[in-house]
């Protein structure tokens, strides 16, 4: 019985670390839009912050959307705009639709964020916390070696 409890605890720890890491990555990008996310389930449920994230990552506007969605159908429309845009960009979305995001299904939200990381990682820079503090004003930052998206993400925690 203790083995099963330990496994559940380790699984919960891993999920917590993954969610915190993904939240940090998302918030780093959403800073450009002047907003942030505290919880994927709540903050992405109306599609507005998801639209803001994609607009920052892609550098393009997603067009008209419901800026103050109150009804489920309006929220679904906002998320559909994002998913349709991603499919048009060539991003493969497997087993996820608007209702999954609106309903706050964490596994699918994490999958969607990981897809964003992989797709938009070519233009990302690696966040090196404290690196700038170690460099004198007349000194250049060391050149970053090319890293895979997975390596970049690991650098976040």
What does the model show?
There is one protein chain. The protein is mainly alpha-helical and 157 residues long. Helices cover 55% and strands 0% of the residues. The chain has seven helices and no strands. α1 packs across α6. The protein is globular, with a radius of gyration of 18 Å. The chain starts with a helix and ends with a helix.
* Count of separate DSSP helical elements: 7
Radius of gyration: 18 Å
Distance between the termini: 31 Å
Overall structural class, as computed from helix and strand content, comes to mainly alpha
Query: How much beta, percentage-wise?
Result: under 5%
| Helix content estimate | 55-70%
Total E-strand runs: 0
Principal-axis shape? globular
Low-confidence stretches: 123-144
The string of secondary-structure elements, in order, is: HHHHHHH
Sheet of most strands = none
Give the overall pLDDT as a whole number. Answer: 77
Throw out a few tags for this protein.
single chain, 157 residues, 7 helices
């Amino acid at each position: 019985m203790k083995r099963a409890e330990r496994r559940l605890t380790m699984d919960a720890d891993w999920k917590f670390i993954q969610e915190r890491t993904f939240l940090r990555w998302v918030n780093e990008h959403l800073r450009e839009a002047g907003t942030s996310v505290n919880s994927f389930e709540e903050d992405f449920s109306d599609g507005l912050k998801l639209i803001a994230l994609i607009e920052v990552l892609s550098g393009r506007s997603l067009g008209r959307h419901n800026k103050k969605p109150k009804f489920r159908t309006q929220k679904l429309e906002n998320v559909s705009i994002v998913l349709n845009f991603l499919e048009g960009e060539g991003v493969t979305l497997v087993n996820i639709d608007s209702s999954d995001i609106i309903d706050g299904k964490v596994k699918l939200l994490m999958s969607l964020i990981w897809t964003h990381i992989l797709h938009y990682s070519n233009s990302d820079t690696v966040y090196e916390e404290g690196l700038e503090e170690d460099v004198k004003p007349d000194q250049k930052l060391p050149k970053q070696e090319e890293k895979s998206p997975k390596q970049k993400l690991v650098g976040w925690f």
